[in-house]
Amino acid sequence: MIGGKTRKKSSFPYEIAIPSYKRHEAIKEKTLTTLKKYGIPSNKITVFVANKDEEALYKQSLTPGTYGKIVVGVKGMHDIRNFITGYYPIGTKIVNIDDDIKGFLEYDESLKRKEKPLKSLLAVIKKGFAECEKAKTKLWGVYPVANGYFMKPKVSTEIRYIIGSFWGCINPGIKEVKVTVDDKEDYQRSILYYKKYGAIVRLNMYAPVSAYYKEQGGMQEDRTKERVEKSARWIVKEYPEFAVLNPSKKSGYMEVKLKDLRD
């Protein structure tokens, strides 16, 4: 209370969007539990599902008070991503997070593994949007691999891969950043924002913890190595000035590396 008047508590404006498909148990145990642990208000959380049948399953499974609402969207990764972009008004600060996130790490130079559990998720969200404002862009993300040996205490603004499991945008509207592929849609999004704004933000000191390519449900329902490779080759052909193929022995899937190859 100041001068006899109660000061209103300021609220940072953002929305959490979670696309989910056939993971009504996993989302409860992982992402929603993780968000609750970090004190993210449930009324900021919207779960986007594929159809009415999925909606019924999620409503039956999810614990009331751990999310704000469930919205019926469409099936397919790029289709639901575009649906989410179109769902919110232009200018909305949207934080997109996958349904299988088990936690977050942050870089710590003083530790042997150079990593520790993230202390504040809200601080990361605020920093992401603040860095976007500074760089005059509308997309931010984090380091794609939860490994302190590779993470760095650096904010980059050149073209870098913004992983689809956790990223934020100042919604530019669907006409500006419409993705068209299911596999590698996060690579395409990274390129589209970079082409549009000349910069994208990556907070290389933070990373989400998840089992990429391994979690049941979601994209795994339809993903094949052949389809992943087809998407990777399409991206390289469509955006030759920003992408090259990067075969990955570790994952077994064809990967893409982003780099500004323009003179």
Describe this structure as you would to a colleague.
Helix content is 28%, strand content 21%. It has 7 helices and 13 strands. The chain has helices spanning 26-29, 31-37, 52-61, 77-87, 121-135, 185-197, 225-238; strands at 15-19, 45-49, 69-72, 93-97, 103-107, 115-117, 139-142, 155-156, 166-170, 201-203, 206-209, 243-247, 254-258. The termini are far apart. Mean pLDDT is 92; it is low at 1-9.
Q: Layout of helices and strands, plus pairs?
A:
Elements lengths: L14 E5 L6 H4 L1 H7 L7 E5 L2 H10 L7 E4 L4 H11 L5 E5 L5 E5 L7 E3 L3 H15 L3 E4 L12 E2 L9 E5 L14 H13 L3 E3 L2 E4 L15 H14 L4 E5 L6 E5 L5
In short:
With 263 residues, the protein is an alpha/beta fold. Helices cover 28% and strands 21% of the residues. The chain has an eight-stranded mixed sheet with strand order 3-2-1-4-9-7-10-8, sandwiched between helices. A three-stranded antiparallel sheet has the order 6-5-11, with no helix packed on it.
On the 0 to 100 scale, the average pLDDT is: 92
H/E topology pattern: EHHEHEHEEEHEEEHEEHEE
Counting DSSP E segments of at least 2 residues, the number of strands comes to: 13
Read across the widest sheet, the strand sequence of neighbours is 3-2-1-4-9-7-10-8
Point out poorly predicted stretches: 1-9
- Judged by helices, strands and strand pairing, the structural class is alpha/beta
Number of helices: 7
**Ends apart, CA distance between termini:** 58 Å
Instruction: From the alpha carbons, calculate the radius of gyration and give it in angstroms.
Output: 18 Å
Principal-axes shape call? globular
Helix coverage percent: 25-40%
Query: In percent, how much strand structure appears in the residues?
Result: 15-25%
